[in-house]
Design goal:
The chain is of the alpha/beta class and 667 residues long. The protein folds into four domains: 1-98 and 198-283, Rossmann fold (3-Layer(aba) Sandwich), CATH 3.40.50.300; 111-190; 317-376 and 537-636, Rossmann fold; 386-528, PCRA, domain 4 (Orthogonal Bundle). The strands form five sheets. A seven-stranded parallel β-sheet has the order 13-14-12-15-16-11-19. A six-stranded parallel β-sheet has the order 3-2-6-7-1-8, sandwiched between helices. Strand 15, helix 26 (575-589) and strand 16 (592-601) form a beta-alpha-beta unit. Helix 5 crosses helix 8. It is globular. It starts with 10 loop residues before the first helix and ends in a 26-residue tail after the last helix. Bound molecules: adenosine-5'-triphosphate. Adenosine-5'-triphosphate binds next to helix 2. ATP binds at residues 28-35. One of its GO terms (biological process) is recombinational repair. It is an enzyme of class 5 (isomerase). Keywords: ATP-binding, Helicase, Hydrolase, Isomerase, Nucleotide-binding.
Length: 667
């Protein structure tokens, strides 16, 4: 009889799927079917009679958890039961467990702080610690949050973190440490947990003899995807969940570890295999994704200890990867748009094509070019918290309607009022938390802010008076909409997100868990719910390399393979930073199935966020070594060849078109 679970697997993958309960480490290169194998193993466990509740599947993104659960369901004899399995990101599962055991942790209520809340809270506290003023350069709240998070995630004291990463902060080290201590105390007093705390509290529960045993008894099977990206706290959690390694399966590729800034290190994968006596190491080397031409390049790029030369299951087919040298970022954008449209004309759907880049701003020029040419696209990743700020504003209103002592959310909401500055917002937020009558609060506000503030407080009170999510959401939306309309110059672009998130929230049975989810993964919340209608049409994908992990397309265009962009100039100062950039380069090249095109503009904008500022000369990326270039076809874009753009190589260009002198306008 055909075994549906392993029918589509090769021998090495099947060995992993059918492995017994002993600890199992699957270490393999890109495109070798790690995800497919892990999914099949889940299906195999369920079909062999393991209760789905006993299985815990940990992934790095919500998208991956959802995709793996639905694929496992499709393989199972009884698909419905997979819904009972535990699956999600480390943070999402941590939140469920911490909420369940909140009493044991001395927490009345669990409020999760997103990274924006963390900087708001640090903003609230810094004045008391003498870290405000303009007399000297002081660390921003974002830098303070980074110092704290690095220390917590790596177990390295803050002073050493500062010495290594933020040396100019050292002179304020005492005050910074006092502030961070106050930050921790404030969080503990108020039951506020930032993302790092979620993991720390989960680890603490597992380390507790009583609760730990209960949690361990809950899951006999723990499967972890992308193990190369775990940090030390996550390693501890995994080890505490399955101390002897039984029932544990981890999957990863050390050459794809790209989260060093979160304290992850590629060594965790191999160290786990060494530490767990008797663990089985399965290596997968057959690549089912790309043509051999693309893999020949990837094999040269591939760093890491595991010398895995990938062999294409499909054999040699398709064109060599192409390296295109372009005049500048505009030229690059035109080349990419031309190539995408040409492939589309030849029958390749836009959804089969992607453009990848190191940093969100690298696609600025391309986005304009695509809009002009009417090419629909969707951008993933690199969405800074700033860009989801409007969603977070609405969520701040939900939060204060549920919890009137949520000072950070009050502060956020108050600062959205036109006539309220940070100082007034800080004072009024504290007064609201004390329970001061709303009428008195309005009277204490600067006169110009009073009307708007009275309106906000009335609506929040109305929202707080009901427990029907739809009614509550409507009142909150009414409260924030007029504020945001004034606050954001690009409000029309943001309005659809806010509406979409409000609609999704109104349809929930429990607003609290919606808020927690939106806090833990705000970009996917706005991406999943607010933008869904557009995603149904054929569209091109624009994505940061980080957000492209685990995905694949027939044709991949990689932008800005120039020194300073990839590798990023931020990473050039340390060997680890550079190694991580090289792994990112590897991740990018291995996303392509049939075609890979890498672009190196010879001039780059000085300021990456501006579109029309000064440009500097840029060399092709140092990762494009002679060996790598040998595996490619090299071309010059017509923009470089044409004499009119000779300036691309750096010289000044003699103008051929007269530009009107606008001087008279400014006389
Ligand atoms: N045995 C197989 N037969 C045919 N196709 C396969 C097989 N195993 C995997 N594939 C296909 O190969 C591609 C890569 O698989 P998958 O995404 O599971 O790899 P991965 O190792 O997780 O990749 P990466 O680490 O690069 O994200 C997918 O299109 C998958 O469907």
């Amino acid at each position: 009889m055909l075994d549906t679970v392993t029918a589509d697997l090769d021998d090495a993958q099947r060995e992993a799927v059918d492995h017994d309960a002993g600890p199992l480490v699957i270490a393999a290169g890109a495109g070798t079917g790690k995800t497919r194998t892990l999914t099949a193993r889940v299906a195999r466990l369920i079909d062999s009679g393991v209760a789905p509740e006993e299985i815990l599947l940990l992934t790095f993104t919500r998208r991956a958890a959802a995709a793996m659960t639905s694929r496992a369901a499709a393989l199972c004899a009884n698909p419905a039961v997979t819904q009972r399995m535990w699956s999600g990101t480390f943070h999402a599962v941590a939140h469920r467990i911490v909420a369940e055991y909140s009493q044991h942790l001395g927490l009345e209520d669990v409020t999760v702080l997103d990274p924006g809340d963390v900087t708001d809270l640090l903003d609230l506290l810094r004045e008391e610690h003498g870290l405000t003023g303009t007399q000297q350069r002081l660390p921003t709240s974002q830098t303070l949050a980074d110092i704290c998070s690095r220390a917590v995630n790596t177990g390295v004291p803050t002073r050493k973190v500062m010495a290594d990463q933020f040396p100019w902060c050292l002179e304020h080290a005492d005050r910074i440490n006092e502030l961070l201590k106050a930050y921790v105390t404030r969080k503990r007093d108020r039951g506020l947990l930032d993302f790092d705390d979620l993991l720390i509290y989960w680890r603490a529960l597992l380390a507790d003899p009583l609760v730990g045993d209960r949690l361990r008894a809950r899951w006999n099977w723990v499967l972890v995807d992308e193990y190369q990206d775990v940090n030390q706290i996550q390693v501890d959690i995994v080890r505490l969940l399955r101390p002897d390694g039984s029932g544990l399966t981890v999957v990863g590729d050390d050459a794809q570890a790209v989260y060093g800034f979160r304290g992850a290190t590629a060594e965790h994968l191999l160290r786990l295999h060494e530490d767990l006596g008797g663990s089985t190491l399965v290596r997968l080397t057959r690549n089912f994704r790309s043509s051999q031409q693309i893999l020949d390049l990837a094999n040269v790029v591939r760093p890491g200890e595991l010398r895995l030369d990938l062999v294409a299951d499909r054999g040699p087919c398709g064109p060599l990867p192409v390296h295109v040298q372009c005049a500048n970022a505009d030229d690059e954008a035109r080349q990419v748009a031309d190539a995408v449209l040409a492939a589309h004309q030849d029958g390749m759907d836009l959804r089969d094509q992607a453009v990848l880049f190191r940093t969100g701003t690298h696609s600025n020029q391309l986005e304009i070019e695509l809009r002009v040419r009417g090419v629909p696209f969707h951008k993933y990743g690199g969405i800074g918290y700033l860009e989801t700020a409007h969603v977070r504003d609405l969520i701040a209103a939900f939060r204060v309607s549920l919890n009137p002592i949520d000072e950070i959310s009050w502060y956020r909401l108050l600062t959205r009022h036109r006539a309220l500055g940070k100082v007034s917002a800080r004072v009024l937020a504290a007064r609201l938390v004390e329970g001061t009558d709303h009428g008195d609060i309005v009277a204490e506000a600067p006169p110009k802010a009073r009307t708007a503030l009275a309106n906000t407080l009335d609506l929040i009170r109305a929202a707080a008076a009901t427990r029907i999510p739809a009614v509550q959401v409507e009142a909150c939306l009414k409260a924030v909409e007029p504020l945001l309309r004034q606050h954001y110059v690009d409000w029309p672009r943001r309005a659809a997100d806010v509406d979409g998130v409000a609609r999704a929230a109104a349809g929930q049975r429990d607003l609290r868990s919606f808020i927690a989810e939106a806090t833990i993964d705000p970009t996917s919340v706005s991406g999943d719910w607010a933008k869904k209608p557009h995603l149904d049409e054929d569209h091109l994908t624009l994505s940061t390399i980080h957000a492209a992990k685990g995905l694949e397309w027939r044709s991949v265009h990689l932008l800005r393979a120039s020194d300073g962009a990839l590798p990023s100039d931020m990473a050039l100062s340390t060997a680890e930073g550079l190694a991580e950039e090289q792994r990112l380069f590897y991740v990018a090249t291995t996303r392509a199935r049939d075609r890979l095109t890498i672009y190196s503009p010879m001039r780059l904008p000085v300021h990456p966020t501006s579109l029309h500022s000064r440009h500097v000369l840029a060399k092709p990326s140092r990762f494009l070594t002679d060996k790598v270039l040998k595996a490619m076809e090299s071309t010059l874009s017509p923009g470089v060849q044409a004499p009119a753009s000779a300036g691309a190589s750096g010289g000044s260009v003699a103008p051929t078109v007269a530009v009107p002198d606008l001087g008279e306008l400014f006389g």
